[in-house]
From TrEMBL:
GO terms for biological process: transsulfuration. Belongs to the trans-sulfuration enzymes family. Pfam families: Cys_Met_Meta_PP. Its cofactor is pyridoxal 5'-phosphate. Gene3D superfamilies: Aspartate Aminotransferase, domain 1, Type I PLP-dependent aspartate aminotransferase-like (Major domain). GO terms for cellular component: cytoplasm. Keywords: Pyridoxal phosphate. The keyword Protein biosynthesis does not apply. InterPro entries: Cys/Met-Metab_PyrdxlP-dep_enz, Cys_met_metab_PP, PyrdxlP-dep_Trfase, PyrdxlP-dep_Trfase_major, PyrdxlP-dep_Trfase_small. The modification N6-(pyridoxal phosphate)lysine is found at residue 174. This is Putative Uncharacterized trans-sulfuration enzyme.
Amino acid sequence: MERPRRTLPHPPNIPRHLTSIQPNIPYDGHIYSRHTAPTTTRFEAILSTILKGQTLTYASGLSAFHALLVFLNPRQISIGGGYHGCHGVIDVHQKLTGVKKIPLDCPAEDLNPGDVIHIETPINPYGTATNLAKFAEKAHSRGAYLTVDATFGPPPLQDPFEWGADIVMHSGTKYIGGHSDMLCGILAVNPVHVKEKWFEQLAKERLVLGNVMGNMEGWLGIRSVRTLEVRVKKQAESVGRLVRWLDSAVRPERYEGKPEATEEERELMSKVLLKVEHASLQEEDIKDGWLLKQMPNGFGPVFSIVLKEVEFAKRLPSKLHLFHHATSLGGVESLIEWRAMTDPSVDTKLLRVSVGIEGWEDLKADILDGFKALVAEA
């Protein structure tokens, strides 16, 4: 027996896919991926909760920084060191707008309404931190804005909005992605700017700039944030232990007769290691109180070491087994980089160290073996 045909739930002669679309009212679904897509929109919703401000994703960290500059369109940007790629974006943007770079430590009087102070904290490649509240007060006293690149201090280590940031940027490629398998940029807007519709304007500009993140990366991002807190806390804890151990070999007097490194280790490392840099070693800032308030859950998973000879810095990465010689950071694997390969402005004896989730004792042994190999070849 032939089954009766089902009647259509929509009027005849109108295609089914058009019955829910009314072109003259705002849409409430996903129409075009350059605007919104299910995975990226879900990822942004999760990030908005984690970062405590409405969040947009971009194709990469640098595309997010470019979007920030386009949106705020400052006449001046006060900036210090940090990722050389951001300085490159400013140089390109400068050709179109004439934006002027001025020093981070410029007098407040040099700033005008609409200008930007941009701070990366902790800073690449050193892992040292900057007092955000101090610069927020400086910016806002002149009608300028504070933007913060918090890539090296991901949640739950710090919340720049708590200290006055207007926009927070992340290269989500790093710790938020956390697995070295995705490109992602992030901008989060301080809730104080809700009435000014900053988020909506950024979204409109992203639509025409076209610097959107792919759907696959959105899915990977959703996967990654599930373990974000566990990963970052583990990495920051391991860095704290490694930094204390290394620094105690260089400055044993700081540790009141109880250095982490043994006498034998200190004797070995004194032949190779000159200096260790990390926010946990900013003694005066810790005593002052602002650093512990700004970073209550750890001082960051990246630190740097300066060796006594350029050749040591060039060769150490190849002597290690658990640390991979690579220019990225933030993944579950530990990386080390002779930074001068990618950033010619840094000390040629400096190595940037990004710690993964391996056991810190294993990483310590790997570094020690690397130092032994350098001394044996000297």
